[in-house]
């Protein structure tokens, strides 16, 4: 099946290309970049030299529709919506990695991201977290891939919300991300001299735009409203997210029961690894892979529960998850192109 990567020059787009190059069924037929249009991709990105013989082009939905059956749109928020609208209108299935179609409610979306450029499509996309929404993704024509932070929160949290064993407010979340999560841009905060040997919180509490996305999906899992207090941090590393979630349990919960609950939830999931009791997730164990490692640590006497996760923000948090969704959309094995071991060391 011929596919396009629209917005191939960002970190997410490049990661998509890396994953797609080893996919047994998807053939990359078009790659776009407005800023680098006309440049051979191997010249623009030497890591792809000799692997992909295509020229970056400007995104033209009509032209793409003549050449591909599915498009991955890895454009910035707001820029993605009109391209997705036009590509979908031309009959091409779309996996969108922006936030433009993740939120189901137009008012909420515009509160956090500004005026929407394709409001008629808001609420029509399947939310692209296969472990929670596999059947809706299967056969969908438009999938909105979750943000990297929401993926790291929802995978450990959702099973406990579904079972009703934890309080739904407040849910306290501490996440730490590598700098690639901010995208490819030149700002003081992302300079090496600012990042090296440093770690700081930003957009604390309810200021981060991933909060409504997490609350939307967590509330669906719980069957009632969930309120998140979120503290993201920037780590002096390139890839990866580690997340810690603090909850109150509704009744005493043993370590054995918490581990069993997670194990049941993900027994048939290839990309969520429930760690052995007592083991904690680590970035080095997931880097470069589509795996998310999760663990649970109850405080039986205090009535608390700590959930942990680790994933690669560019793979399970973006490009890998997008390919996982695309596999479901077109009826391929969900693991196609994705069973690569993490990069160690």
Set out the fold topology:
Elements: E1 2-6, H1 11-20, E2 27-32, H2 41-44, H3 61-67, E3 70-73, H4 80-89, E4 93-96, H5 106-113, E5 126-127, H6 130-137, E6 142-144, H7 148-163, E7 171-177, H8 192-195, E8 200-201, H9 211-222, E9 228-234, E10 241-248, H10 255-265, E11 272-274, E12 292-299, E13 304-311, H11 315-330
Parallel strand pairs: 1-2, 1-3, 3-4, 4-6, 5-6, 7-9, 11-12
Antiparallel strand pairs: 7-10, 8-9, 10-13, 12-13
- By CATH, the topology of the largest domain is Dihydrodipicolinate Reductase, domain 2
> What general form does the structure show?
globular
Number of strands: 13
Query: What's the helix count?
Result: 11
Query: Mind telling me which CATH architecture of the largest domain this is?
Result: 2-Layer Sandwich
Order of helices and strands: EHEHHEHEHEHEHEHEHEEHEEEH
């Amino acid at each position: 099946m011929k596919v396009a990567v629209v917005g191939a020059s960002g970190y997410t787009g490049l990661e998509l290309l890396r994953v797609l190059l080893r996919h047994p069924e998807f053939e990359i037929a078009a790659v776009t970049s407005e800023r680098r249009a006309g440049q051979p991709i191997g010249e623009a990105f030497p890591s792809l030299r000799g692997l992909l013989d295509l020229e970056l082009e400007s995104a033209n939905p009509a032209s793409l529709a003549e050449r591909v059956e599915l498009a991955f749109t890895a454009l910035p928020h707001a820029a993605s919506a009109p391209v997705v609208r036009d590509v979908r209108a031309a009959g091409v299935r779309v996996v969108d990695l922006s936030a433009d179609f993740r939120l189901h409610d137009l008012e909420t979306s515009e509160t956090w991201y500004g005026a929407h450029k394709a409001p008629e499509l808001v609420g029509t996309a399947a939310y692209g977290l296969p472990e929670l929404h596999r059947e809706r993704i299967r056969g969908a024509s438009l999938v909105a891939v979750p943000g990297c932070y929401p993926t790291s929160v929802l995978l450990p949290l959702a099973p406990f919300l579904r079972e009703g064993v934890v309080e739904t407010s407040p849910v306290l979340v501490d996440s730490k991300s590598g700098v690639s999560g901010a995208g490819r841009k030149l700002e003081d905060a992302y300079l090496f001299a600012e990042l090296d040997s440093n770690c700081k919180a930003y957009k604390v509490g309810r200021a981060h735009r991933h909060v409504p996305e997490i609350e939307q999906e967590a509330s669906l899992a719980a069957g009632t409203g969930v309120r998140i207090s979120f503290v993201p941090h920037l780590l002096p590393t390139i890839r990866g997210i580690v997340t810690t979630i603090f909850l109150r349990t509704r009744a005493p919960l043993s370590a054995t029961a918490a581990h069993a609950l997670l194990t049941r939830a993900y027994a048939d999931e290839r990309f969520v690894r429930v760690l052995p009791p007592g083991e904690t997730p680590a970035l080095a164990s997931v880097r470069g892979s589509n795996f998310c490692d999760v663990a649970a640590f109850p405080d039986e006497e205090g009535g608390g529960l700590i959930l942990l996760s680790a994933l690669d923000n560019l793979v399970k948090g973006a490009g890998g998850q997008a390919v996982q969704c695309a596999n479901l959309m077109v009826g391929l094995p969900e693991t196609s192109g994705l069973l690569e071991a993490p990069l160690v060391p």
